[in-house]
Write a structure and sequence with these properties.
39% helix, 569 residues, two-stranded antiparallel sheet
Length: 569
């Protein structure tokens, strides 16, 4: 249990929060309106719609709406061919981001002056040289606040850190800038960074664009909500337990957690930085699979391992997926043996599996979960080897209150204990033993070996839920097993939209029998009326460093199964 000591306050935490919000609002006010009257109706309204998904088409100028509806790969092509200017694209996304903030509270600050100056420079470069400056020329990219930007705040969701400033851009931002990107928005994150929701005393709750009474996910929930409303088409999140995948799933977009040590992490902000027995990774969130690829390709093309030695020197190598040459074997994990997914998740899984079975040379098999409860015991013991004392100290420094999910992951977590060196070694040994055991489970799916002894007929990827349900009600996201499992194993995983909840079809199973006490509690969270219309997303998981393979298989399957099965914005 972390210490409860209070540090003498310099000023009330509420005053700091007001300063943060005033600063944010001032940055938003700098965005040139140029918006229809419908936008002003929303901007100054106290009564916001439950769902924000239809608002942008009514409240944006038609030209801004058309530009921001494009996928990142389409925008890159149009910018490279001179069909659109960087200024026009940046202006459109700034305006839509301003609207997204009003609807979902997803922004910590907009960057209109920086972004438009950058866009003007790129347009002048294009006019002079008749070519783009790099592969991301003029593409607006949003950034989770914890990624440092030179001269700007770096608070990590803590009141006490509000006045911290980054000395330089984070390494990943330097790379994307060199490739031609424009950074137009910074997005919200939760207190402690360890929520599958986004809620802080600095900015309040970030809500889901499909239903404001529902969580946007976390900890990269600002990115999820912003991209879900297309105030950005490509953003940067981080993931140590599901923080990219949870908001991507909740908001109906694509999100990718790479293998650890593939993408740069220098320059971010967190407690216990540098002491991470569970790798936290930087990864992309986007409106398309191609957006994920664009990010990964651009970052790895810069050979970031030359400046950040912790990274592995593996360049981006896109595989060709052709089941006619090499059949695919997809394992389906229907549940994790601890918590049964809610009815919408089960339905989406069944619908996808039926389609997979109709594809030639694609074999579908069941995956038996392996000691998922033990996996949580290991990872939750390693999340806070200091017992949460640094996070508690930072919270106490300002006097800000503990939020419910911060309290849950630290104070109510029986595994969050200060570890002696001996105990630390024990849990690290347990982590490696579990990884080795899981590798054997995966290897045992092989049907044999070839002439040179290599395994054949082995599972390529696992299809599984992203969580025990769709986006949950606020402060109820307390089961991480479907995402944190893959962080413990350091496996790459991609989340993608499949369908939407239909309250008439997705009804509770009256014959349901819980596997565990947690399972029983989780079933009580399902509310078909409230969840109606929310995105249903699933997850594909591969083995360590099979990052490209996971994305390539999803791309192939998407083309063969016409994913998503219902229209998404």
């Amino acid at each position: 249990m972390p210490p409860n000591k209070k540090i003498k306050l310099h000023r009330p935490w509420q005053d700091v929060a007001k300063e943060a919000q005033d600063y944010r609002d001032a940055s938003i006010a700098q965005v040139i309106p140029g918006l229809p009257a419908a936008f002003e109706d929303i901007q100054f309204s106290e009564a916001l719609p439950i769902s924000s998904m239809d608002v942008c088409g009514k409240a944006l100028h038609p030209r801004d709406y058309r530009i921001t509806q494009h996928l990142p790969e389409e925008l890159i092509k149009m910018l490279a061919e001179g069909e659109l200017t960087a200024v026009d694209v940046t202006t459109a996304f700034l305006r839509r981001a301003r609207l997204a903030q009003k609807l979902t509270n997803c922004i910590t600050e907009l960057l209109p002056e920086r972004a438009l100056n950058r866009a003007k420079y790129l347009d002048e470069y294009y006019q002079k040289n008749k070519r783009p400056i790099g592969p991301l020329h003029g593409l607006p990219i949003s950034v989770k606040e914890m990624m440092g930007m030179e001269g700007l705040g770096l608070n990590g969701g803590f009141i006490a850190w509000w006045d911290r400033k980054a000395k330089e851009d984070a390494h990943v931002l330097q790379i994307l800038w060199s490739a031609g990107a424009v950074f137009h928005a910074r997005t919200t994150e939760p207190q402690t960074m360890m929520h599958l929701e986004t809620d802080s005393n600095l900015y309040g709750v970030t809500v889901n664009p499909y239903n404001r009474n529902i969580a946007a996910g976390g900890s990269s929930g600002g990115e999820g909500a912003l991209i879900g409303l297309r105030g950005s088409c490509l953003g940067i999140g981080t993931d140590i337990g599901g923080s990219i995948r949870s908001p991507a799933a909740n908001c109906g977009i694509y999100g990718f957690k790479p293998t650890g040590s593939r993408t740069p992490t220098d320059g971010w902000c967190s407690t216990a930085a540098g002491a991470e027995p569970i790798p936290c990774v930087v990864g992309p969130m986007s409106t398309s699979i191609e957006g994920l690829k664009i990010f990964m390709r651009a970052v790895l093309a810069a050979k970031p391992w030359l400046e950040e030695p912790e990274l592995v020197p593996i360049p981006w190598q896109w595989p060709i997926i052709n089941p006619q040459v090499k059949p695919l074997k997809i394992a389906v994990m229907w549940n994790d043996g601890v918590v049964t997914p809610h009815p919408p998740i089960i339905r989406a899984m069944k619908e996808i599996v039926d389609r997979l079975k109709s594809i030639d040379n694609v074999e579908v098999v069941d995956w038996k979960p392996y000691l998922q409860d033990e996996a949580w015991a290991i990872i939750s013991s390693l999340y806070y080897p200091d017992g949460g004392s640094e996070a508690a100290t930072v919270i106490a420094e300002s006097g800000e209150p503990w939020l419910p999910l911060s309290n849950w992951i630290i104070k109510e977590n029986p595994c969050a204990k200060k570890l002696t060196p001996h105990k630390m070694y024990y849990w690290l040994e347990e982590r490696e033993a579990y990884r080795k055991e899981y590798a054997k489970v995966w290897n045992d799916t092989a049907t044999g070996r070839n002439d040179v002894g290599q395994l054949e007929g082995i599972v390529d990827v696992i299809l599984c839920p992203v969580g025990p349900g769709v986006a949950p009600k606020h402060n109820t996201a307390k089961y991480w097993g479907y995402t944190s499992q893959w962080n413990l194993l350091d496996y790459p995983a991609v989340v993608f939209p499949v369908s939407k909840v239909d309250k008439k079809r997705d009804i509770l199973d009256e014959t349901f029998k819980p596997m565990t006490d947690i399972d029983e509690e989780n079933q009580k969270l399902y509310d078909p009326d409230m969840f109606d219309g929310l995105p249903i997303s699933l997850q594909l998981v591969g083995r360590r460093f099979d990052d490209e393979k996971v994305l390539a298989i999803l791309e192939y399957l998407k083309g063969k199964t016409n994913l998503p099965l219902v229209p998404f914005p």
